[in-house]
Amino acid sequence: MTVLVINSGSSSIKYQLVDPESGESIAAGLVERIGEEMGRVEHEYAGEETAIDMPVPDHGAGLREVLRLFEEKGPSLTDGSIAAVGHRIVQGGKYFDGPALVDDEVQGRIEELIPLGPLHNPAHLAGIKVARELLPDIPHVAVFDTAFFQGLPAEAHTYAIDRDIAEKHSIRRYGAHGTSHRFVSGEVSKLLGRDDLKQIVLHIGNGASASAVVAGKAVETSMGLTPLEGLVMGTRTGDIDPAVVFHLGREAGMSIDELDDLFNRRSGMKGLAGDNDMRIVEAKMDAGDENAKLAFDVYVHRLVKYIGAYAAVMGGLDAITFTAGIGENSNTVRRLVCERLAPFGVRLDGAKNDVRSKGQRVISTPDSTIAVLVVPTNEELAIARQSMEVVG
Ligand code: ADP
What we know:
The chain has 392 residues and is α/β, with parallel strands linked by helices. The protein has helices spanning 59-73, 104-112, 121-134, 154-157, 163-168, 178-192, 243-251, 256-265, 268-273, 278-286, 290-314, 324-329, 331-340, 350-354, 379-391, and strands at 2-8, 13-18, 25-32, 39-45, 48-54, 82-89, 100-101, 140-144, 198-204, 208-214, 217-221, 319-323, 361-362, 371-374. Helix content is 40%, strand content 20%. The longest helix has 25 residues, at 290-314.
């Protein structure tokens, strides 16, 4: 049995047909530039790649073309081999602490949560509606990025602002990347053979978040009401004094939309070093670029600060795991973070850290007080497995 995993973004749809048991990706593809004059649909199956440039006016048209390609190029989606369609949903608000079988009520909740996920939830909804219409005989499951963090202790998810306003406007820490944090922390438990671990997962890609997980349950995470809070990211500020908003509003006359754009799309590594691709920032730093060096220092500093805070929150720390584009690939970021943790007994095995691999691996020495690992994230597989939990 397989699961079709769908990730509908504002102007794109990514999909993958996954075997949830073996983890094998059987077919995959994407629809890009939905709503633009010319779009593109790509499909890959059994070594054959198909790419079609065509206008894709909306998500419905995109998904229809994907299903047509499945029937034309394979594998068939209508031969009864698909157990579920798993939909990635960014914002599940207070309603979902795990995956949910999609029905009209669940669809209504996702719609209700649009104000908390204005960029993502409308696209998810569009994807779900068309997918249910086109594949009506297969159960559809919604897998929420926020679900892993719904059970955070109140002291961790509550912001210290007026209670009535917070209640009225659903202000709290929801977190994000939860599917990845749940998957990676679960893999670490299996790898180290312990289900009582106090661990930190650093999901550092273009977006970046840290989580603290005790015995499989999340107790802290760095993203907040939205993915803006926390670590330094490709284009987002991460933590910043909210008074910067008031200051720039009053002194620079910037509007809320301009500030949103500045904080979410023109800050982070892009704002500091001129580029959000960490490979370019590293190359600039190696070439002596002072801005890139400072950006890198700020980036590593923030990571170290969160690790210290989370170790204190958990009252101990057994494992630190790096994942996502930067975590899996940048031996420099991993080395600089771990060097700063040497006073706490963290010992990185330099040779293991430098090995390039797609595999799960421990990169600390046997005498390190805290295990350091690299575990590639696989959100599609995680969504497929969670979908199977729901449909049995
Ligand atoms: P997204 O949040 O878009 O899913 P990814 O997890 O794909 O992001 O990560 C993208 C980031 O990973 C980019 O900043 C990219 O520069 C970085 N990255 C990929 N490979 C390397 C590498 N070898 N060294 C440093 N950074 C890398």
